[in-house]
Amino acid sequence: MKKLAFFLLLGVLFISCDKKDDDLYKEYQVAKPLKISLAEFENGVDIIDPIPIDESGKIYAYKDYIFVNDKYKGVHVIDNSNPASPQKIAFIKIAGNVDISVKDDYLFADSLMDLVVLDISNINNITIVNRLENVLRDNIIWPSEADFIEYETIDYNEEILIGWEIVTEKRLKSEYEERFSGIDFALAESANDASVGQGGSLARFKIVDQYLYAVDSHNINVFNISNLENPKDLEDVFAGFDIETIFNKGQYLFLGSMRGMYIYDISSPATPTFVSEFQHGTACDPVVVDDNYAYVTLRGGNTCGATESGLFIIDISNISEPVLKQTYSMDEPYGLGIKDEKLFICDGASGLKVFDKSDIANLKTLDHFKNVVTFDVIPLEENLLMVGEGVLYQYEYLDHKINLISELELN
């Protein structure tokens, strides 16, 4: 009887300790730095045979090819001449890469602070033609989805930070409340031009005519690429804070940031000038635009902010005074795209949602693909591209919906 009482007491103590731990601790998303040596970074560009993807990033379409970013590692090259059966053909290894853009068979890619130029005219013999060093000076990508960022473990004298690995760890709640003390956050569409490829709404690179615009956390980096092999680095334009994405419509650039949407005039392409802005609560947001409206998805939570996730539709008929016209609730939206009257939204684990946007006050659901995790989407002329969790999906347009035509496992 005494033994039974003793074990019951132990059980109560263990339960009490667990409960006490639950009161003090909570599971958080922790960003751990991915690092390479300085020598590895300097030799970090190479073209190799296809490899499994580690973490799906952004997608880009050019001619019969699809390029899928593997976050911080490089770009998977896919032959899409037959959309029903796409084939992986190469991997372009680029340390720290998250974005690309292509014009006339020249591919421009970021490698952290460097701009790399590759000749892809012979897709079976891709060559490196130039590397402009330290031209993307503030190209530090902080992992917005993380609750903690272990930046203090980096030895900048010996190592290069190329990205982040997000893991779940139990941390003190008090540590979470004090996590940002002392951090200096100051550190922290050409579709009609056949010579230029097309990126999704999450892109930070955009080519318009003879210029490449690349946004970092608070600047528009401007490059004259009239000589494709030798881009000219022009004066950066300060554009605000927490810039995340860039979209082009006519003479305007639309920048998505964690604070709002900024509009810049590029009628003088070397010197973008501020036109107007639309502010919202802090959230992660990309933007796409048609003739009259800008469509902005806001993703709240974690360091994206406390804003509830949703779709904002903004009237830009007066470009100097954008006005919010409509909002719709979403779960965890990432990329989005438009094609004629169709609006496509990648709503994270809630799948791909397709709407008829002909009446913005009453969006009508045309399709909802629920059993996919979605990230980025590109509406092409003939078909729709979408990348999810290690899978490239392609759909064909039908009158009132879309139809899946292929899936390519990237892993």
Pick out its properties.
411 residues, mainly beta, six-stranded antiparallel beta sheet, five-stranded antiparallel beta sheet, 34 strands, globular, LVIVD
Walkthrough of the structure:
This protein has 411 residues and is mainly beta. The chain has a domain at 26-197. The chain is 8% helix and 48% strand. Strands 2-6-5-4-3-13 form a six-stranded antiparallel sheet, with no helix packed on it. Strands 14, 15, 16, 17 and 18 form a five-stranded antiparallel sheet that branches. It is globular, with a radius of gyration of 23 Å. This is LVIVD repeat-containing protein.
Strand order of the largest sheet: 2-6-5-4-3-13
The count of strands amounts to 34
Distance between the termini: 58 Å
What multimeric state do the chains show? Answer: single chain
The stretches of 5 or more residues where confidence is low (pLDDT under 50) are 182-191
Tell me the helix content: under 10%
Strand content: over 45%
How many helices does DSSP assign? Answer: 3
Q: What is the mean predicted local confidence, pLDDT?
A: 86
- Class by helix and strand content? mainly beta
- Overall, the morphology is globular
Largest sheet: 6 strands, antiparallel
Radius of gyration, whole Å: 23 Å
Protein name: LVIVD repeat-containing protein
InterPro entries: LVIVD
Pfam family, one: LVIVD
Topology:
Elements: H1 2-24, E1 25-37, H2 38-42, E2 45-48, E3 56-62, E4 65-70, E5 74-79, E6 87-94, E7 100-103, E8 106-111, E9 114-119, E10 127-132, E11 148-149, E12 159-172, H3 173-177, E13 198-199, E14 205-208, E15 211-215, E16 219-224, E17 232-233, E18 237-238, E19 243-249, E20 252-257, E21 260-265, E22 273-279, E23 287-289, E24 293-298, E25 310-315, E26 323-329, E27 336-339, E28 342-346, E29 352-356, E30 364-369, E31 374-379, E32 383-388, E33 391-397, E34 402-409
Parallel strand pairs: 1-11
Antiparallel strand pairs: 1-12, 2-6, 3-4, 3-13, 4-5, 5-6, 7-8, 8-9, 9-10, 14-15, 15-16, 16-17, 16-18, 19-20, 20-21, 21-22, 23-24, 24-25, 25-26, 27-28, 28-29, 29-30, 31-32, 32-33, 33-34
